[in-house]
Design brief:
Layout: E1 11-14, H1 22-33, E2 39-44, H2 48-59, E3 63-69, E4 74-79
Parallel strand pairs: 1-2
Antiparallel strand pairs: 2-4, 3-4
């Protein structure tokens, strides 16, 4: 699930302070606007956001490339698939 050297994301959004499920919805909407194969970095709060959002994205067909604990928040890198989700 995690890589030693994460790729550079194509875009980034800061969803710290955004409650569930709004953070998942905003992440998915942002991914849908991106080119297939591109990567989005999402900043999430600890607790419910980091527990729920990656699993929800996986269930929707997105690939979680990297999850990093950045002391106080988490950064996840999620890739939009080449084929439509």
């Amino acid at each position: 699930m995690t890589q030693a050297n994460p790729s550079k994301p194509d875009a980034q959004i800061d969803l710290r302070g955004t409650p569930c499920p709004l953070n998942f919805v905003k992440t998915k909407l942002h991914l849908e606007k991106m080119m297939p194969g591109s990567m989005l970095e999402v900043w999430l709060d600890p607790g419910e956001p980091i527990e729920q959002v990656p699993d929800s994205l996986r269930m929707e067909g997105y690939q979680i490339e990297h999850i990093e604990d950045r002391s106080g928040f988490f950064a996840i890198q999620v890739r939009r698939p080449q084929a439509p989700v």
